[in-house]
């Protein structure tokens, strides 16, 4: 194979089978009907002016309901988390790649948080949450 030869690869999103699944259904499939990722803070400052981990930031988030926003992944991030978990449970690799600024860091951290939560749930109940049970 010459390095200049064109490789005709068949690329896919990897989530085609989930394209009709709603955000609400994804939360249930993950086992989080309260629409909250485990170990994540519930609120965020949309203007990014406060440190949510400082005492002042925690107080601001608690006392400014008209200024804060829920910290939740968007559909494409949530479906990515679900798909990465599917691949992890299947023992298969996954490659997460999309445009800059679409939230890959949130997806990876969300996946790690879910795995940690699932391990704890399995230890306590002998069962994984959501579809993974």
From TrEMBL:
<dbReference type="InterPro" id="IPR038718">
    <property type="entry name" value="SNF2-like_sf"/>
</dbReference>
<dbReference type="InterPro" id="IPR027417">
    <property type="entry name" value="P-loop_NTPase"/>
</dbReference>
<protein>
    <recommendedName>
        <fullName>SNF2 N-terminal domain-containing protein</fullName>
    </recommendedName>
</protein>
């Amino acid at each position: 194979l010459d390095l200049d030869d064109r490789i005709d690869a068949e690329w896919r999103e990897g989530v085609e089978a989930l394209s009709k699944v709603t955000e609400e259904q994804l939360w249930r499939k993950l086992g989080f009907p309260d629409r909250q990722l485990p170990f994540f803070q519930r609120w965020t400052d949309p203007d990014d002016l406060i440190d949510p981990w400082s005492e002042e930031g925690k107080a601001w988030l608690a006392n400014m309901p008209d200024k804060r926003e829920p910290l939740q992944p968007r559909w494409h991030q949530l479906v990515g988390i679900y798909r990465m978990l599917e691949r992890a449970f299947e023992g298969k690799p996954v490659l997460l790649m999309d445009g800059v600024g679409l939230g890959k860091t949130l997806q990876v951290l969300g996946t790690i948080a879910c795995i940690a939560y699932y391990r704890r749930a399995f230890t306590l109940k002998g069962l994984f949450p959501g579809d993974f049970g």
